[in-house]
Design a protein that fits this description.
The protein is mostly helical. It has one domain. The chain is about 75% helix and about 0% strand. The protein is globular. About 40% of the residues are buried.
Amino acid sequence: MPEKTTTRWRGALALQDVIVIGYALVLAVLWWARAPAPGPGPAIRQVYACLALVPAAAFVAREVPEVPWGARINVYRVVVVGAIVWGYLILRDALPVIRTDTVDASLAAADARIFGGEPVLWLEALNRRPVVEWMSFFYFNYYTLLLAHVVGALWIARSPRVAAEFGVGTALIFCAGHLGYMAVPAYGPVSFFADRFRAPLDGGLFWGLVSGSVEAGGAMKDVFPSMHTGATAWLALFAVRQATLDRRWRVPAALTCFCAANIALSTLVLRWHYVVDVLAGLTLASLTLWASVRLARWEEARRSRLGLGPVWPRRR
C-alpha cells in the first residue's frame, strides 16, 4: 500500500507543480530565517496553503478519475495559475522581511559602466503626455497579455504539448524571477533618481492606472530582473515557437511581439527599471524558452517510461 501511494503521488506531481512547491518552500525557509519573533503570522499561513493546495489539486486532476474531468482539470489549472500569481503578491510582505537592504546603487553603477551614463535619465526627453500614455497603456495591459496567453495555451489550444511547454516555462520564469527579487532587491530609478528627474511624468488615464496598481499591489522592491520584460518576452518567444509549428499562432505571435517590445521600453520610460534589469529579463526569457521545450520533452519521456499518466489528462 505505501508503495502504491508513493507511485500515485509520483504520477500526480508534474514538473510545474514541483517548481511552484519548491518556490513556496524556499520562500518559507527564507521568511522564517529572517522574520522577527513571533513570526509573520497570517502571511506564513498563505505559504502553507499553497504547499497544500497545489499538490492536492494535482493529485485530484491526475489520480482521481472518479471526479468529473472538467471539474478536476479546470480546478487544477486555476490553482496552479493562482499559486504563481500569489507568489508575486505575497512579496509585498515578504521582501521587507527577507531583505531589508537595497542594491539600487549597484544597478545604477552597472548601467553607467555599460552605457556611459543612465539611459533612464536620457529618456526623460520623452516625457510628453502622448508618449507617457502610450507606454502606460502597454505597461498596464501586461496583465491582459498574460491572461490571454494563459487562456489560449491552457484552455483554447487543447494541445498537451502546448500546455506542457507553457506550464513548465511559466512556472519556471516567474518563480526564478521572484527569487531574483529576493537576491537583488531594489526600488528602481523612480526612487533612486527621484532628485535628478526634472519633472514628474506627464500622464493621464493610463498612467494613473499604472501608478495606482503599483501602489496598491506592487512588491515595491521588485526590480531585478524586469518581469514585465521577461514574462512578455517569454510569451513572445513561446508564441513564435508555436507559430512555426501551427499557423494559427501567427497572428497571436505577431501581436505578442509588438506588445512585448512596447512593454520593455515602457519599463524604462516610466522609470520603473534600469537597463540591466531589462537585459536580465530578456536573458531569463531566452533561457526559459530553451529549458521549457527540453524539460517538457524530458518529463513526457519519463512519465511514459514509468507508466505514469499524462501531465494534462484528456477527457475520456
